[in-house]
């Protein structure tokens, strides 16, 4: 397979993978807080609208690596809601898969 096709395949795989689908389902089944202090620098005044916008954007741009931070933000929101710190290992795994 040509190199550019391999990279495109990896990009397609990122947002079609079960973890992204599971993440969407998780957010749909949770009662989200109205607002959230994600970290010292990030305050989300409307969590529901933020999550909906992030998911819509990712679905609209599944082949664009520029949107991976949107996915990472969803993971951070989920982890914060679950009272955990952001899982840097998981975030790094998805970002690294695109560069291999």
Biggest sheet record:
2 strands, antiparallel
Strand % is: under 5%
Mean pLDDT rating? 77
**Total number of helices:** 5
Number of domains: 1
Helical proportion?
Answer: 55-70%
Number of DSSP strand runs: 2
Radius of gyration: 14 Å
Strand order of the largest sheet: 1-2
Entry summary:
This protein is mostly helical and 100 residues long. Helices cover 66% and strands 4% of the residues. The protein is globular, with a radius of gyration of 14 Å.
Topology:
Elements: H1 3-16, H2 18-29, E1 36-37, E2 43-44, H3 47-60, H4 68-81, H5 88-99
Helix pairs in contact: 1-5, 2-4, 3-4
Walkthrough of the structure:
There is one protein chain. The chain is mainly alpha-helical and 100 residues long. It has one domain. It is 66% helix and 4% strand. The protein has a two-stranded antiparallel ribbon with strand order 1-2. The protein is globular, with a radius of gyration of 14 Å. About 7% of the residues have low confidence.
């Amino acid at each position: 397979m040509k190199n550019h096709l391999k990279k495109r395949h990896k990009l397609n795989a990122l947002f079609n993978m079960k973890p992204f689908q599971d993440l969407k389902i998780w957010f749909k089944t949770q009662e989200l807080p109205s607002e959230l202090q994600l970290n010292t620098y990030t305050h989300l005044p409307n969590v529901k609208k933020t999550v909906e916008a992030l998911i819509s954007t990712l679905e609209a741009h599944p082949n664009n690596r520029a949107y991976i931070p949107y996915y990472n933000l969803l993971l951070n929101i989920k982890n914060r809601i679950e009272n955990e710190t952001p899982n840097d290992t998981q975030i790094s795994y998805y970002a690294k898969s695109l560069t291999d």
